[in-house]
Write a structure and sequence with these properties.
The protein is an alpha/beta fold. It has 2 domains: 72 residues, Translation initiation factor 3 (IF-3), N-terminal domain (Ubiquitin-like (UB roll)), CATH 3.10.20; 83 residues, Translation Initiation Factor IF3. The protein has a 4-stranded mixed β-sheet. It is rod-shaped and about 80 Å long.
């Protein structure tokens, strides 16, 4: 569904009808209650518009401001709010009460990636049938998981048994802006010396600029 245009959300000047008086506010005016026709006259004297910003108040609140400037301020405010809203996904990782080390390390690596990307992790142990008898073992596994992820995330909810699942939530730790991952740094360091070794060979091939004599090889 399309959101209404900002200009359709506010009544301005002669559009303000059905009320006898309004409360006036502005940057250079104290809060004052005036009949609508006087508020319109005051706006005209100041060379601005009468904009209704709170129609449900008693009486409705109007602001003395240039309407174009008001709409610009509202759009700017909405953009600032939207920029601060960060979408966080929750990634699920499932364990069994008897998870082996290979499977554990595989899922640990995935959790590190999720947290590094700024996602939350929902880790849980699923107890099937009589395996619910090993709930203490499941709690130990989740606490070990949290400890191994200490550099990447922090526990948001300690392990809790909910039905056949023991659930724990991990939230990502904030990473420094502009920082590179260790893997990216090491790869750049390896590639750099290779480029330096190739440079002298390319330079040596360009030193001879005269005509090539048949039967001679100047590359040796």
């Amino acid at each position: 569904m399309k959101k209404p245009n900002l200009k359709q959300q506010y009544r301005v000047n002669e559009q303000i009808r059905g009320v006898r008086e309004v409360r006036i506010v502005g940057d250079d005016i104290a809060s004052t209650v005036l009949p609508v026709f006087q508020a319109l006259q005051l706006a005209e004297q100041k060379g601005v518009d009468l904009v209704e910003i709170s129609p449900n108040a008693e009486p409705p609140v109007c602001r003395l401001i240039d309407y174009s400037k008001f709409i610009y301020q509202q759009k700017k405010h909405q953009k600032e709010i939207k920029a601060k809203q960060v979408k966080v996904d929750v990634k699920e990782i499932r364990f069994g009460p008897q998870t082996d080390d290979h499977d554990y390390n595989f899922k640990l690596k995935h959790a590190q990636g999720f947290l590094s990307d700024g996602d939350k992790v929902k880790a849980y142990v699923f107890f099937k049938g009589r395996s619910i008898l090993f709930k203490e073992q499941g709690e130990v596994l989740l606490l070990r998981f949290a400890q191994d992820l200490e550099e990447y995330g922090k526990v948001e909810q300690m392990p809790q048994l909910e039905g056949k699942r023991m659930i724990m939530f991990l939230a990502p730790k904030k990473q420094p802006s502009g920082g590179k991952k260790p893997q990216e740094t090491s790869e750049a360091a390896v590639e750099e010396p290779v480029r330096e070794k190739k440079a002298p060979q390319q330079k040596a091939r360009k030193e001879y600029t005269g005509p090539k004599v048949e039967g001679e090889d100047f590359d040796d």
